[in-house]
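Example S7 (structure tokens).
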């Protein structure tokens, strides 16, 4: 069966060179265009993603205290990495760049929602609680009373095994300030 093409209608013919269209990448409320993203443009990103995704998701969760928000923070950090991949692919440790983006975003969210967390903690103090013997429950409760920067320092220093200098760089503060955050969190 042959179909007829109306006059004046052009049917695109497949070509040997197929261009990849620009793809918008949503990061938070912003949309970026990653340019012409093809296989060669994102070379090495998949390996980095698989190596770093669990650590970044865990760090974001420990800072935010919420699995859904942590997943969104990690997703946004990796989306920003795609947008800036041409630049960060040449870094010695591109995973550190992604971790920095995720931790800073998690701290901003935690600070923004701080009042809600404070009210939840006050409400939980007034109710009689059963003491949990599960260490993860006690850890979450202990992290819940810390400020966002203190939480981030505990996560970076003890869970990600980063020295104070590197953790300070990720948080965007001086090492002395990071040490103060760590000391007050203990």
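Recovered sequence:
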């Amino acid at each position: 069966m042959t179909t007829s093409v109306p006059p004046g209608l052009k049917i695109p013919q497949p070509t040997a060179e197929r261009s990849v269209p620009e793809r918008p990448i949503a990061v938070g409320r912003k949309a970026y265009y990653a340019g012409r993203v093809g296989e060669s443009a994102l070379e090495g990103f998949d390996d980095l993603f698989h190596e770093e995704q669990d650590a970044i998701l865990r760090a974001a969760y420990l800072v935010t205290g919420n699995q859904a928000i942590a997943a969104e923070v990690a997703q946004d950090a990796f989306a920003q990495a795609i947008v800036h991949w041409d630049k960060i692919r040449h870094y010695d440790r591109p995973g550190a760049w992604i971790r920095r983006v995720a931790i800073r975003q998690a701290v901003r969210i935690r600070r923004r929602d701080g009042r809600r967390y404070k009210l939840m903690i006050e409400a939980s103090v007034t109710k009689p609680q059963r003491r949990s013997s599960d260490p993860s429950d006690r850890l979450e409760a202990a992290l819940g009373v810390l400020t966002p920067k203190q939480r981030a320092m505990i996560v970076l220093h003890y869970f990600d095994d980063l020295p104070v200098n590197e953790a300070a760089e990720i948080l965007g503060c001086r090492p002395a300030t990071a040490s103060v955050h760590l000391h007050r969190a203990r």
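Notes on this example. The radius of gyration is 23 Å.
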